[in-house]
Amino acid sequence: MSLRTFVRSRKLTGALAVTSVAALSVAGVVASTATANAAPGCRVAYQITNQWQGGFGANVTVTNLGDAISGGWTLEWDFAAGQTVQQGWSGTFSQSGSRVTVRNPSWAGNLGTGASVTPGFNGSWNGSNPVPTSFRLNGTVCTGSVDTTTTTTSTTTSTTTSTTTSTTTTTTSNNPGGPKVDNPYVGAGVYVNPQWSRLAAAESGGSRIANQPTAVWLDRISAIAGNSSPTTGSMGLAAHLDEAEKQRAARSDGQLVFQFVVYNLPGRDCAALASNGELGATEIGRYKTEYIDKIASIVSDSKYSKLRIVPIIEIDSLPNLVTNVSPRATAVANCDTMKANGNYVEGVSYAVGKLGAISNVYNYLDSGHHGWIGWGDTVPEYDNFYASAKMMASILGKNGATKDKVHGFATNTANYSALEEPYWTVDDLVGGRPVKENAKWVDWNDFNGELGFATAMRAELVKQGFDSSIGMLIDTSRNGWGGPNRPTAKSTATTADAYVNESRIDRRYQKGNWCNQSGAGLGERPKAAPKTGIDAYVWIKPPGESDGAASEIPNDEGKGFDRMCDPTYGGNIRNGNNPSGALANAPLSGHWFSAQFQELMRNAYPAL
Ligand code: BGC
């Protein structure tokens, strides 16, 4: 894993508005509702049979209580919250603004007294999906006694009952295996990986965090069945899911999120070497059949249908096709290859389509971090931010990757970027100019931390076509920056560099440094819904697992030696030729690195 920054020393600002994000849609899921209006003229039962993130299905039964109709009927209603009909059946649907009109099918224009028809449709919704309150049949408003429909919210069952007096609403934000909730982390525990937990607990002082949830990385095909890796080890995906189901069943709320990382693209980690993978640049066929299909077939087992399954999809992949390709000075040949052959886009869209088709899966895609993607500009060569969002949207429509299959995005995965800098902002003036323009650490980056970045990226992704209800995850496993070197106040220095360097909590040499960073600490403990638009703080990178070997180590995992993990290295263009800042003596990426684990605990912020 690696995260490359893009160094841009230039005097042209790409002012990026940090848009504030409207509150996420509440819509836990389906207030499966029902309504009905009956009248001397007609009665309607409107039944939502199924609802998921952004979409729903409904049946509308209209009963004619008046004179027999011949020669055609028309049913109309208004949606109150911008819902739209996508596809209908047993009637001809049209919509103009909020008004929906359903006409009889050509073969069924008659509707006798007491007779019913039930056209149905799939629709989309955003924010909320209230049931229409008024219907008209051939222009006559259906009013009168109430026919109540209660819909259960399971995707597979629904029941309809008729009463005369009341409307029942069932709310199912915790419906196991049913329609998706808006934020899977709310009201749920998160899976504790027993393998990581054992390694952590075996460390002196490690029991303080050994019960924290971390993600399971499927970093090669053999990890699906389980392999002999010292960290990912013998538990394969099914074994993890069996254990997750036990953890879920033991909880009083009966809800558990299972997080795993999908990380095995052909030509993986194209801009670096430490996490090159097993599949060559052209092996997209194997990626699909031996990796994604296998994962999907295990995850879709009904034994696991009560879990909220969260795949974090392909760290570092798509943004590399923006920042590390020709004609940029930062270009790397392998990234040019992956852009030209399309296999990152093909693989990511395939994973999204395939996994997203499983009803209890919540896909989150990797979207980099602010120290890499945080430059927005109208000049393409200097724009990482907008171009990355566009690149991510380029998966939509391919291989079944539709926007309803993308639940959100993850930032800072396996990186060290702080959530926010408490003592200064990029707009602070030193010598009359904002430090954004004249401090090397900032170098015109529009952001000062992951919260600002994730919030703005979320808004941009929505603009680019993702659903407005997407949520963000932020990996806070190693971005705490506590310990003795953490500043306690804003600097009083009068040069921009000194001011920023003395004020900042992120103690790296440069934000492009990504490998086993010296001085880093554990960050915020995993937490649901910490801020608006942020679904959770999560520990995706399991603390204690190395980012890459400090020197060449022969291996059969496809991993190379990247000098960004070598503490003696003076850097390259992608980190502004700064020292790597890596800890010494690190093992291969993914392997247990006790010295790093100890340092992360020492420098934890909040402290342990
Ligand atoms: C490695 C993987 C490992 C993951 C989590 C990545 O950098 O390449 O092998 O599973 O980190 O530690």
Automatic annotation (TrEMBL):
Enzyme Commission (EC) number: 3.2.1.-
Class of the enzyme per the UniProt entry, highest EC level: hydrolase
PROSITE patterns for the chain: CBM2, GLYCOSYL_HYDROL_F6_1
Gene3D superfamilies cross-referenced by the UniProt entry: 1, 4-beta cellobiohydrolase, 2.60.40.290
GO BP, one annotated term: cellulose catabolic process
Keyword annotations of the record: Carbohydrate metabolism, Cellulose degradation, Disulfide bond, Glycosidase, Hydrolase, Polysaccharide degradation, Signal
Presence of keyword Hydrolase: yes
Keyword Ribonucleoprotein belongs to the record: no
Catalytic residues (positions): 269, 316 (proton donor), 547 (proton acceptor)
Biased composition (Low complexity): 148-173
Domain of life: Bacteria
Signal peptide (UniProt feature, chain positions): 1-38
Stretches the record annotates as Disordered: 147-182
A molecular-function term among this protein's GO annotations: polysaccharide binding
Pfam family, one: Glyco_hydro_6
Boundaries of every CBM2 domain copy: 35-145
Residues reported to bind substrate: 217, 219, 369, 372, 415, 514, 541, 545
InterPro entries for the chain: Beta_cellobiohydrolase (IPR016288), Beta_cellobiohydrolase_sf (IPR036434), CBD2 (IPR001919), CBM2/CBM3_carb-bd_dom_sf (IPR008965), CBM2_carb-bd_dom_sf (IPR012291), Glyco_hydro_6_CS (IPR001524)
Family according to the record: Belongs to the glycosyl hydrolase family 6.
PANTHER family, per database record: 1,4-BETA-D-GLUCAN CELLOBIOHYDROLASE C-RELATED, PTHR34876
Protein name: Glucanase
Annotated source species: Saccharothrix texasensis
